[in-house]
Amino acid sequence: MQQNPHPHAAPVLRRTRRRLAGLTTAVAAVLALGTLTGPGAQAADNPYERGPAPTQSSIEALRGPYSVADTSVSSLSVTGFGGGTVYYPTSTSDGTFGAVVISPGFTAYQSSISWLGARLASQGFVVFTIDTNTTLDQPDSRGRQLLAALDYLTERSSVRGRIDSSRLGVMGHSMGGGGSLEAAKSRPSLQAAIPLTPWNLDKSWPEVSTPTLIFGADGDTVAPVASHAEPFYSGLPSGTDRAYLELNNATHFSPNSSNTTIAKYSISWLKRFIDNDTRYEQFLCPLPRPSLTIEEYRGNCPHGS
Questions:
Q1: Where would one find the signal peptide in this protein (predicted)?
Q2: What is the pTM of this model?
Q3: Is 302 within 8 Å of 284 (Cβ atoms)?
Q4: How far, in Å, CA of 198 to CA of 190, rounded?
């Protein structure tokens, strides 16, 4: 009988095969773990994320993924502001939502900014468009009224159970925009502020730490950007998440009617900072370039990007 010239070869081969099989299993486990802990899993771990992954068309759409209802709030039933209209997602299956209060400008009523109500709410926010105590109220008063409306919304309104009171923001047009800066100055816990062609005698805002997106308009003769929106932006702390978007071929009153550029960047800002939803960073960073609708965009990429 012929002797096996390598008597130890078979056991060594079996051990090698076992090691290779173990290594294959380990590699597969690591790959699976990488898949589970990749960007998709991290996004799913964000408890504030609402709605499907965004696209350029989804943030430009007239309506987002949520059906919306609205309810009127009488000025007689509130104190500190003039009542308004609450727009909210009808679904409760996703839990609570962040909330935003919006103030109109000098001499104006909530109807002037009502288009933002359902548009923002359909993306997954509770939105309160308010009337002010009088149409002549100045920005500091409008700032206090925005905060009073937020307190009403989260503490006493019929939709308070739908709201996460730790995730709140303010917006406003003209003197209401100046008021949104006042509100952010007074309440640093706010997650986002969006002044729309804002007006205010105070030009510098070193006290504001809230992530702030300011819209200006190149043709604004009521609150010219050189003396309002631009110094407001420059007066925010450089370490704050901040941006300045100057609308092209626009006027002081451009925010008073449906405007896709205002909507898409407002949605992206609110989603990123109220919902901590990094899926929307793609629309804010790299910084948007000048276009048919954008004259200029300044700012920083969201911190933590």
A1: 1-43
A2: 0.85
A3: yes
A4: 18
Q: What whole-number distance in Å separates Cα of residue 193 and Cα of residue 283?
A: 17
- 3-class SS letters over 86-104: EEEECCCCCCCEEEEEEEC
What CATH number is given to the structural domain containing 93?
3.40.50.1820
Secondary structure class of 78 (helix, strand, coil): coil
Burial class (CB in 10 A: 0-12, 13-18, 19+), 238: exposed
Report DSSP state, residue 135: T
What are 195-244's pLDDT values in tens digits? 999 999 999 999 999 999 999 999 999 999 999 999 999 999 999 999 99
CA gap 216, 298 in Å, rounded = 11
Where in the sequence is the domain holding 126, given as residue range(s)? 63-299
Q: Which residues are known to be catalytic? A: 174, 220, 252
- Asked, for residue 217, whether it belongs to a domain, the answer is yes
Q: Is residue 274 part of a domain?
A: yes
Q: Is the pLDDT of residue 15 over 90?
A: no
In the numeric block, which tokens belong to residue 165?
Answer: 């009171």
Flag whether 16 is in a domain. Answer: no
Q: 242-268: per-residue pLDDT in tens?
A: 999 999 999 999 999 999 999 999 999
In a domain, 133, yes or no: yes
Instruction: Look at the chain and report how many structural domains it folds into.
Output: 1
Whole-number mean pLDDT of the chain?
89
